[in-house]
Amino acid sequence: MKKNGIKKEYYLIAILLILFIFLTILVVFGKIDLIDEMFFNKIIKIKKGYITNFLYVITYLASEIAIIVLLFVTALLFLRKKAFSDFKYVIANVCFGAVLMEVLKLIIKRVRPSWKWIVQSGFSYPSGHTISAFLLYGTLFLLVYKKVNGKFKNFLLIGFCLMIILTGFSRIYFGAHYLSDVLASIILGFIILIISNQFMNMEFNNDKNKNRKTIQTK
Length: 218
Known about the structure:
- This protein has 218 residues and is mainly α.
- The chain has one domain (2-204).
- Helices cover 78% and strands 0% of the residues.
- It contains eight helices and no strands.
- The chain has helices at residues 2-28, 33-43, 49-60, 64-80, 87-108, 128-147, 153-173, 179-217.
- The longest helix has 39 residues, at 179-217.
């Protein structure tokens, strides 16, 4: 059963990689620019002051400074719950995603949308804010799902999902990224989380087996 499960994960990773490569080819040759522009034009129609203010907070929470602060706060929470060893998955995923984004941006060198209306430097593809939020909240989602029980569990899981969705949406809303930039980050984020989830399962299963043996010995 485990072998079949692992094979399914590998198939999913392969499919996601193919999707990313295909999307990247479309981006490099400008074959998706029209769709990106049309999507932005649809979104900008809902532009309102209160929506802008709300989404600005969301997009700021995925900035480099905010992510560092959130990682620090998260580390304290894990330490308080005596589960600091689990925090390695959060820091590893977020850091790897950040490095991967910078490398891809420098290779592809896609210019940011001409219609952006917030100050944003650097290249556009893929979206760094989106993958940072995806890996931070996505990794927390996996850890909470696997190890936390209680009435607030579902609330936390829904909250993590909303933060991921809203972050990607905010990057398009402000014109800082194209739709395809955000989609690329989501695809890569899923790949990293799938791999990370395999390591989590192996570690947590080993811990359960050790605890069972300890109890039986006693």
